[in-house]
Amino acid sequence: GSGRETPSVRSPVTAMAKARDGTLWVAAGDALHHVRRDGSAELAANRPEGFHALAVDANDRLWLAGVDGLMVREGTTLRAFGAAEGVFDRAILAIATDDRQDGSIED
Predict the structure, then answer these.
(1) Whole-number pLDDT of residue 84
(2) Any residues with CB less than 8 A from the CB of 67 and at least 6 apart, and which?
(3) What SS3 class is residue 98?
(4) How far apart are CA 67 and CA 15, in angstroms?
(5) Which is more confidently placed, 9 or 71?
(6) How far apart are CA 54 and CA 72, in angstroms?
(7) What confidence tens digit (pLDDT) does each residue in 24-71 have?
(8) Residues 6+ apart with CB under 8 A from 101
């Protein structure tokens, strides 16, 4: 992340996801915040288009979706997915993870 500390998340929250260590990823306005268990927050990323959905997968990677596409956070880098990776529509409004990693859907 940028390492810049923020006292709180100030914009309306559009998405949240819980990491395996109990911290929260919070999308609010054009920002992605990493909120620690003590309530302090770090600004992790900014995107003018913002984020619509967040999900943490079984490998503790953060997935982000928005009007400008699908991304995964690897370390401190956001990697975008496009047509080359099979994502043909840039507007992604929701995402889900497969914790069992077998592609099945349970009732």
Answers:
(1) 87
(2) 49, 50, 52, 90, 91, 92
(3) coil
(4) 14
(5) 71
(6) 10
(7) 999 998 899 999 999 898 999 888 888 899 999 888 899 999 888 899
(8) 58
**Full-model pTM:** 0.79
- DSSP secondary structure of 7-68: SS--SPEEEEEE-TTS-EEEEETTEEEEE-TTS-EEEEEE-TT--SEEEE-TT-PEEEEETT
Structure-block tokens of residue 65:
């979706």
- Residue recorded with tokens 């043909």: 88
Print burial letters for 43-64: b (CB count within 10 Å at least 16), e (below 16).
Answer: bbbebeebbbbbbbbeeeebbb
d(CA 6, CA 16): 17
The token pair that represents 52 in the structure block: 């619509």
Q: Could you tell me how many residues make up the chain?
A: 107
What pLDDT sits at residue 107?
Answer: 52
Query: pLDDT class for 7, splitting at 50, 70, 90?
Result: very low
What is the three-class DSSP state of 1? coil
